[in-house]
Amino acid sequence: MTLLEAKFSLLFQNLQLWLQNNYSLSIAKQSQMISEAGSNLKPLIGQTLGTVLGTLSMVVLLPIYIFLMLFYKTLILNFLYEVFAEKNSTQVSSVLEETKNAIQSYMVGLLLEAIIVAILNSAALIILGVQYAVLLGVIGALLNVLPYIGGIIAIALPVLIATVTKDGYSTQLGIIIAYAVIQFIDNNILVPRIVSSQVKINALVSLIIVLLGGAVWGVAGMFLSVPFIAVLKIIFTRVEGLKPWGKLLGSEVPVYHKGQLWRRRRSIKESLSQKIVEKGESV
């Protein structure tokens, strides 16, 4: 920690001297501007700390929730079977089995995503020559599970290591660019094609539901939104009146839409009727 403080102190002093020499900003003026900026950033810092604490609390409470759900599994299943009529017990059992498979597939998708992101992070850090590249890459992949905050911390860690162990700023800039590209690949390719495909939810719905989950329930909503919508899809496909909604949430894209089919059928009928009329006139 002393080495890190000394390195940042040297960088800060060099920055102050550079601003003084090139922009005629005295050290006292810079200190005043930093003090004013700090006062304005206090609300933002408080909000950020609240988000971090909320995320950490969710990480701590999530295993407790899972344990309690597993502990009361029989009670919950009996409740679901008793709520519905006995004649629907087979259908209820089928829905519960599909729900279990969907959630398991979602967890497998998250694991595959984390492995790929860890490999990409480690490769980028090795190429840039950052120490502890593999360890930082794995930590970054695990933190990537936490939306927004996790990505920021994942970038900050290798940047700090590069700042302590290397001179200049090219490595830090390379880390930021590499992680930004990896985040783009993860958000636009890996999550829709690996995580969402495991639960058979299309990419558009998965992106929308993650944003809605975050707006309604914060970080926990982002985690739970995809398996929640997967369970809804299973239920929708089993209820006759809700099957169109199940198809809308699914990943299967039809070749033709209904309007095209209706127009084709109508054109076929019109051509047949026209042939019949022409045949009658010729007779």
Tell me the β content: under 5%
- What spatial form do the alpha-carbon principal axes imply? elongated
Record field, number of beta strands: 0
End-to-end Cα distance: 101 Å
Please give the domain count. 2
- Tally of helical segments: 10
Outline the low-pLDDT stretches. Answer: none
Q: Which assembly state applies to the chains in this document?
A: single chain
Radius of gyration: 28 Å
Q: Helix and strand string, N-terminal first?
A: HHHHHHHHHH
Structural class: mainly alpha
Can you give the helix content as a percent range? over 70%
**Main beta sheet, described?**
none
Average pLDDT score: 76
Keywords:
single chain, mainly alpha, 283 residues, 10 helices, 2 domains
Per-chain topology:
Elements lengths: L1 H22 L3 H45 L1 H11 L5 H40 L4 H11 L5 H17 L4 H29 L4 H36 L4 H7 L8 H25 L1
Helix pairs in contact: 4-5, 4-7, 4-8, 5-6, 6-7, 7-8, 8-9
